[in-house]
Write a structure and sequence with these properties.
It contains three helices and seven strands. It is of the alpha+beta class. The chain has a domain at 66-171. The chain has a seven-stranded antiparallel beta sheet. A hairpin with a 4-residue loop joins strand 2 and strand 3 (84-88). It starts with a helix and ends in a 24-residue tail after the last strand. Residues 163-178 have low confidence and may be disordered.
């Protein structure tokens, strides 16, 4: 019996020890955390507002402008007026406020032109360079007067000059609308 009592005391001692260890241990908190990520939420981007380019103010000149040919760009440019006005391929082109416009006559009405639709001579050069070429040709035109041999004409509202027939200063460079 002593032997049986000894086994019970050992089992009791071990059980008591385990209860003491379990009782002294910090309480354990259990939980479940589940995250499912399918991707970022969709980004909603509103379309940009339409670009509206207001027409420029009209080109108002007292007299029809003289148009002088710029050989570098292959275009005519108006001289003696405070506008960036060019003529090429039967159309007038007007640069105003950082935008280009075209019209059938030098007074408009003007329609906005995107840069890639400009004639090559106007795309190839910055407006600042075209102005420099204009000033150079205009100085020669004024200095040589009727002896000026460069291509030029006087614009006629409502008429498109014939670019294949270039008059010179001897007859005032006026085209008859052909």
């Amino acid at each position: 019996m002593e032997r049986h009592f000894g086994q019970i005391s050992v089992i009791f001692a071990i059980s008591a020890g385990l209860w003491v260890v379990i009782g002294m241990a910090a309480p354990v908190q259990a939980g479940v955390d589940v995250n499912i990520n399918i991707g970022a939420p969709p980004v909603v981007v509103a379309p940009p507002p339409p670009v509206v380019v207001a027409p420029p103010p009209p080109v108002e000149v007292e007299m029809a402008p003289e148009m002088i040919y710029l050989p570098e760009a292959g275009v005519y440019v108006a001289v003696g007026i405070p506008f960036d006005l060019y003529f090429v391929s039967g159309r007038y082109y007007y640069f105003h406020g950082g935008s280009w416009y075209w019209g059938r006559g030098y007074g408009g009405p003007w329609t906005h032109v995107v840069y890639r639709s400009l004639p090559p001579g106007l795309q190839r050069y910055k407006v600042e360079h075209l102005r420099q070429y204009r000033e150079r040709e205009y100085k020669a035109y004024k200095a040589q007067g009727p002896r000026f041999n460069g291509k030029h004409f006087v614009a006629v509202e409502g008429h498109r000059p014939n670019e294949n027939h270039h008059m010179n200063g001897h007859d005032q460079g006026r085209h008859n609308g052909r």
